[in-house]
Amino acid sequence: MSSRRSNGFTLVELMITVAVVAILAAIAFPSFQSTLRSNRVASASNEVSGLVALARSEAIRNKRGGGVCGSTSGTTCDGAWSKGMLAWSDVDSDGALGANEVVLRFVVVNPAITASGPNAAGITFDARGRRVGSDAKQVVLQPTSCKNQALLRRLTVNASGQISTAKESCA
């Protein structure tokens, strides 16, 4: 017999290591999916907050108004909040996105997120940065598969244009 020790792994040691890694991955995967859903909703919530803040600051800056709405194409407001959202500057002070208005930013919503918001008119601001209209303006975001977890985000824009976010359980 040789007194020299062999270097490397045996096939049995390698198979046991692969089996242990597979078991740990199978245990961690469901928890990781929940973390991914939570991060997607948080990211979408931050994006909506940023769009609202951009539209409001532009409304104050240009002294004519602005808004945020749901949009499929990024050029018109069609109320499709789950497809995309855009912030726009109201050049003619009519409170609606028209052909001569400037689109400030358009974002496509992650397909794993369900978003709902006000009608096609969206959330509009006057020249002083206040929200136009008396009814509450909310944007609701949640993952497509939520399973009664606290992953729903309800963003409410109050009459003065400030945003509040509430974290709720999915229905």
Counted beta strands:
8
Mean pLDDT: 88
**What fraction of the residues are assigned to beta strands by DSSP?**
25-35%
Our Rg estimate from Cα atoms comes to 24 Å
**What fraction, in percent, of the residue positions are helical?**
25-40%
Lateral arrangement of strands in the main beta sheet: 3-2-1-5
How many helices?
A: 1
Structural class: alpha+beta
SSE order, one letter for each helix or strand: HEEEEEEEE
User: What is the overall silhouette?
Assistant: elongated
Task: State the low-pLDDT regions, or none.
Answer: none
Largest beta sheet, briefly? 4 strands, antiparallel
* End-to-end Cα distance: 70 Å
Please characterize this protein's 3D structure.
The protein is an alpha+beta fold and 171 residues long. Helices cover 30% and strands 26% of the residues. The chain is built from 1 helix and 8 strands; from the N terminus they run αββββββββ. The chain has one helix at residues 11-62; strands spanning 66-70, 84-89, 102-108, 113-116, 123-125, 137-143, 152-157, 163-168. Strands 3-2-1-5 form a 4-stranded antiparallel β-sheet, with helices on one face. It has a 4-stranded antiparallel β-sheet with strand order 4-6-7-8, with helices on one face. Strand 6 and strand 7 form a beta hairpin. The chain is elongated, with a radius of gyration of 24 Å. It starts with 10 loop residues before the first helix and ends with a strand.
